[in-house]
Specification:
Order of helices and strands: EEEHEEEHHHEHEHEEH
Strand content: 25-35%
Distance between the termini: 31 Å
Largest sheet: 6 strands, mixed
Oligomer: single chain
Number of domains: 2
Number of helices: 7
CATH class of the largest domain: Alpha Beta
Radius of gyration: 18 Å
Strand order of the largest sheet: 6-7-8-3-9-10
Amino acid sequence: MAATKLETRNISKCYAGELIIKDINISLRENELVSLLGVSGIGKSTLFNVIAGVLHPDRGQVFLNGEDITGQAGKVSYMQQKDLLQPHMTVLDNVALPLFIRGMRKSEAREQALSLFAEFGLAGTQKKYPTQLSGGMRQRAALLRTYLFSQDVALFDEPFSALDAITKSAMHQWYLALMDRINMSALFITHDIDEAIFLSDRVYIMTGPPGMIASEIVIDIPRPRGDAFLVSDAFIDYKRQIIKLLAH
């Protein structure tokens, strides 16, 4: 079994005296993609903010490679729903921003970022500005920026939710192929059941309130997965199982 990269132990968090998430125990192994699936407002983003160190839990701990990182920001990458690209900066400088922040010389940072543009499907866009890119291309740029922040573990908060259905499907295929090449471990928030099944090695079902882990589903289909998986009996069985769990 692959080594555990990220782990939460008994995470609980309150806002204004109200318990938002309770006793959350999840794990992420090396080169694994795990989804956190639940309805909007159940506490998924709160949990991510705790893992990212933006919020401190009222109880519990977060571990990265066995090290307690509870309340420490900057330890894992965090890509939110909006791409947050800076409109006044070129695509190349947007992508290289984590390297600039670390103090790397701009010429060196740009060279390192540019070397990955083809891998991320961004070749030829380096001198453009975010407004000149399609939604899918903007998400590719945001993903590369996330990768440059930390090539170890990344948190993705519904990164494809703003895309139309056709673009979203194409991004799913591209994303799975990319993840197999770059070997990044990723924890992925979604409320899209099909997306969770198609992308994930495992799916945590979050119910509540307060938000709690109700179940864990192992998607025992090798990656990468083609469109045929979406209409297979196995896919329908996983979807039926998840819908039943969410209904309860």
